[in-house]
Amino acid sequence: MGGLLSDDAVIPVLAALRSTVVVLDDDDEVLRASASAYTYNLVHDDAVCVPEVSEMVALVRQDGEPREQEITVPRGRVSGSGHFFLHVRVASIGEGRLLILIEDRSAAKRLEDMRRDLVANISHELKTPVGAIALLAETIEDSADDAALVAGFAARMRAEATRLGVLVQDVIELSRVQDGDALVSPEDVDVDAVVAESVDRVRVEAQARSIVVVSGGTAGLMVRGDASLIVTAVRNLLDNAVRYSEPHTRVSVGVSLDPADPGLVRIAVVDQGIGIKPEDQGRVFERFFRVDRARSRATGGTGLGLAIVKHVAANHGGTIELWSAPGRGSTFTLVLPRLIPDEGAGRLIRNEEEDHR
Ligand code: ADP
Q: What is the CATH T-level fold of the domain 105-180, as seen in this structure?
């Protein structure tokens, strides 16, 4: 190897590049390749083994002009294991050698797909209430001289407007928890206070449906994060527990330390409601997924509640667990890292401030 590759300075430069690099000699044989070139299945037996890239190489050989292209390669031999989305640039670097630079854009592509999906979903969900409101307004115009009819349609219009408001609020909440990181400027959060506030907020709804809400468990536990987000998450779980239960049943919130890991706090919301079939259990956390659209709609659901809960859990370095049996009920458990007050740095700073007062 002479020229470029014998130059001791160049090899570390190639190694330091964030991109994946492959260098070909004048026979298109691989002289040097980053380990990731093998991960992306681009190189095999000292040769480039992806047809699109080989074509780019041939074109650059013909006229010396660099080429760029986005390509998709399978992640692995197993079908269904997904794809890598790669940006590939091929350029001549003299002495018959070619440099191939590869950037993995899979994560960016995934994010873009997710955004596009979200926008499509939201537009679809917004169309229903907006369409209903337009239709009701038209009907009111047509029956302007029938006061009873007008009153009835106006009430339905108000219900649709409320639904629209709730949906917009949930979308805003979801985008807030999707982007946010509750641990950037966290506060000490008292779990008992969070539970009490959440229970308070569903009390009226529960009473209206003759459902008793109780709470209990280990008192005095703390976590770290954003109290208002945790209240939102627990309240969403309670809303659902009430919404998907029959009258004269019981909903409870239990706080405990994880028996296997005392560094974790478990907040379990237990209902005796309709339950969730095993095949739907993995899907209920997806945005806009509802087992029964009509029931969700009738009770004012948006299909976003559990997506929000999942993001709040993740933002706090925690998870959400689900146990459910159709006809018996469901238990959703928010698991969050525990804050042991005396060890928390936040607590130390606060004590110092108090000393200065
Ligand atoms: P929604 O606004 O429709 O309640 P969620 O994201 O909160 O949306 O929940 C998604 C779906 O999961 C619900 O439509 C319902 O089918 C199911 N689900 C959620 N919580 C419960 C529960 N406690 N019992 C039974 N089904 C539930």
A: Helix Hairpins (1.10.287)
